[in-house]
């Protein structure tokens, strides 16, 4: 029951945000919520209209038709159908897991940018302020046409919602605030000028046909792709969070299938694009919801509630819905998430900030895809620069005659004593064609100069895979080390890497004595192959095996 009560005011508010009739918001919550509950994977995610997706739809279609016009409504149905078909295609191709590649920083930036635009949309409803999206066309902002009654009703809605939220945190505060504002709007001066929702055409969803025009599909498909990215990203994030909380398994392909069927069916019943809604899913879970039957029941109860409350819905002032949009905008800005992201990774924070800015100055579909592209480029940049750390022991070896002591193997600080002939290097990342230039440069630097160590032992257990470029790089390094009179050795390469080396013949050319299962045996096998003359002059003596090597007068163990 709580999910249905929450869906009613949100459906009305998000329909206004999307530029469609109020009944379409209720239809979307009923039809899409019902289909997704039956076909999706998650048992806790409730599907319906959402704030950011509604805004993205309106902003994307604004240049093509006037909001609320017959042509605009036709385009809404076509885009909803295309979005559903794209989601179905992803599910049938088993590509639903692509939602995992939508970075949380992109969604954070998208929602923060959407918060600004939703707040402006709410101000438009209260002040009569017209503006264009994107906001880069700022010269098209119109002068406010303030109506005192609208401002009063909107402010009363916000005040009631905030007060009720404090007094009854888990109650249907938005619904009660809208009811209070509606009652007040019937008595305030200037009430005749207030715009109201009006009579719903029917308390249940009516069939509709999208009437797609084949010539315009190419123009609308990028919009559908952007809405797919946003919708699947939100739905997957919510589903994963709730699955971790409940311990239930989650199939992202099936969740993608459920969302695709929901939007495809919704386009046939006067609905607009829907996805998983955190505002309804989380209260549903907290109220004890655990099965798909809850989503089905919520959709049917909303249908009954819309039929019973049709008379009240008709009297609802649009200014009260504008007040709800202001509350939604404020809730979208997650200051804690921004603070955490800034402390954790400022490059990710820059991606989020760039996505938020793009939301304000670019068409919405371009902003979303630009944010996704930026996050993927950042990931590629990171993987193209794997860390290569010098390793060694945290303490010197025990002197002759002293008992053996624990010597942790650690990353060495610059200037720490090292063997002049054997470099110990930990490889932290895969060696693929994008990383080949960076790794090659680092390896070249390690063997440059007359005093560079001729032997290299690579700790390779964190090198997850290599491609053809990576295989060629290690072949070149083997050749260069051999030319210096040294050798290339590996500690614990992964089975996938070993298999690639066997197929390419590199393992045979490297030799069996150059791959080791543990560091101690590797060092014990390599040290005897070191130049004894260099060992005699060495004062580092970092290995226990150095105790048996000849030493110059004054050197450790000499």
Describe this structure in words.
By secondary structure, this protein is an alpha/beta fold. The chain is built from 22 helices and 8 strands. It has helices at 2-18, 22-39, 51-61, 70-92, 104-127, 148-167, 173-185, 214-246, 252-266, 278-286, 292-308, 310-315, 318-332, 335-344, 346-361, 364-383, 436-446, 468-483, 495-504, 506-510, 519-526, 532-537; strands at 47-48, 275-276, 387-393, 409-411, 422-428, 455-462, 487-491, 515-516. Helix 18 links the parallel strand 6 (455-462) and strand 7. The longest helix is centred in the middle third of the chain and has 33 residues, at 214-246. The chain is elongated. Residues 136-141 have low confidence and may be disordered.
